[in-house]
From TrEMBL:
This is Uncharacterized protein. The gene is CDKN2B. Coiled coil: none annotated. The keyword Translocase does not apply. It comes from the Eukaryota.
Amino acid sequence: MHDKDKLATAAANGNVELVESLLLNGADVNGVNRFGRTPIQVMMMGSTPVARVLLAHGADPNVVDAHAGATPLHDAARTGFLDTVKILIQFGANPDVGDNNNYRPVDLAQQNGHQEVFDFLINI
């Protein structure tokens, strides 16, 4: 398995120790895996520690999915992970960008019934 796939897989599995180890050993935090996605795009959205490690190592919080036009903030808002939403915002994620359907993260939080995420995003 290529290093970029290893890092993306560790992020997707929420394995913060392996993510940190791979990054400390030179893995590219913004490198794409064989599916064309970066670790922050495939990370376990409920794993705030993984998000924090990736972002602290320079992961781009505004990377856009080629198919849907969504950013990691869109994904975290859609799935209702408030802590991940907060860390993405802290590291510069743009809450006002629309996806291919022109939905902002706040819109996705509302559509999916994630009131706490909606309340947070509507007030920033």
